[in-house]
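To fix ideas at the outset, we first show an illustrative case, written as a sequence plus integers encoding its fold:
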Amino acid sequence: MTDFATALNKLWPNGDQKCPGLRAGIIASAPAVFAKYGIKDALVLAHFMAQVSHECGAGHDIVENLNYTAARMTQVWPSRFPNVESAQPYAGNPKALANKVYNGRMGNAVGSDDGWNFRGRGGSQTTGRDGYERVRKQTGLDVVANPDILIDPKQFLECAVSDFINCGCMPYAKADDVEGVTKKLNGGYIGLGERKAWLSKWKAAQVPVPLSPMVILPSDRPTPPDVPKTSQPSITNPSPGSIGAFIASIFAAIAAIFRRK
């Protein structure tokens, strides 16, 4: 069994090259984020981290790289680029390509820069204005106005978890269905083999979900030092605010009067 921090540093050995402090930010935010979004068991954690590890290249590809050759475009988007000639105008032009392939869907307006502005970012490669808007609504982080929040080390994990949940991945992760998780997150099965390989790595690490240091289980709650565990209300030791305490205060007041006489 390996703790989350150790596993992340081992499986993402160069995870900070593109974004300094990324792994530290993920590790620091993990307990609170996983608790907030209901990731409670090792199986779901393994599925989530496997998908994120693939999507962002273990921290290497936190923003979608759309600097493609014409030949590569025909492989990735065959319906849009049936031949090399049709793809050639977009070769080596990431912004134009993003607007070409992403506008008119996923909430992106036609004739705008939405495709480029809302290209894949973050741990789960959130894509499209609609996807960004769902993350904004769920987390309260305005990733629509400031898309780079998705790659901020402090917010990276929460945004990725939010997208994972928004895409409907949780039921499939709980059922240990990697194909179902992939379909929901990716919209297809691109990189399924690599995703399965990542899942094997995270399962092998046997990583328990890190608990928030702010969470104190009932059995661990300390007893106030001035209230012994065995103390019980009685006639001589009435509970504060009780009738007994009121009567005791009256007798105390009468006794004080007689003492003054």
